[in-house]
Amino acid sequence: MASKKVVFYVVTGETDKAKMALTVARRAAEFKRFEDVKVVLQGPSEKLIIDEDPAVKDNLDFLIKNKCIDSACKFIADKMQISEPIMKRGVELKPGGERLAALVNDDYLPLVF
């Protein structure tokens, strides 16, 4: 059976749910549970990129370092006025809906949180 590619599409405003999504994404990438793992953050979940919580920061550091974070939504980041700190963390800003469509069209299975 062929291995699958997944995109974690994290849009929730529930902090605990968004943190869990990052943990699951990190472990999926770390233990090579899929052919490839990508993460797209959109909406309130984008605030986690600049969160100082050590557990969140550790998961994001791993995901950024291993090129698993595809992007955060530019429109929302601009609206929340957090674009600059997001980019300083090494996360690209792109249209969230377009990134999700591009990844799904490239055979990534979406896991939505």
What does this structure look like?
Helices cover 45% and strands 21% of the residues. By secondary structure, the chain is an alpha/beta fold. It has one domain: 3-Layer(aba) Sandwich (Hypothetical Protein Ychn, Chain: A). The protein has a 5-stranded parallel sheet with strand order 4-3-2-1-5, sandwiched between helices. Helix 1 (15-30) packs across helix 2. The longest helix is centred in the N-terminal third of the chain and has 16 residues, at 15-30. The model has no long low-confidence stretch (mean pLDDT 95).
Category from helices, strands and their pairing: alpha/beta
Q: Main sheet?
A: 5 strands, parallel
- Estimate the global geometry from the Cα principal axes: globular
Radius of gyration: 13 Å
What order do the strands of the largest sheet run in, or round the barrel if closed? 4-3-2-1-5
Mean pLDDT: 95
CATH class value: Alpha Beta
Number of domains: 1
Total of helices: 5
CATH topology: Hypothetical Protein Ychn, Chain: A
Order of helical and strand elements: EHEHEHHEHE
Provide the β-strand percentage band: 15-25%
Give the beta-strand count.
Answer: 5
The CATH architecture can be named as 3-Layer(aba) Sandwich
| Distance linking N and C termini | 26 Å
Q: Approximately how much helix is present in the residues?
A: 40-55%
Q: What's the CATH H-level homologous superfamily?
A: DsrEFH-like
* Poorly predicted runs of 5 or more residues: none
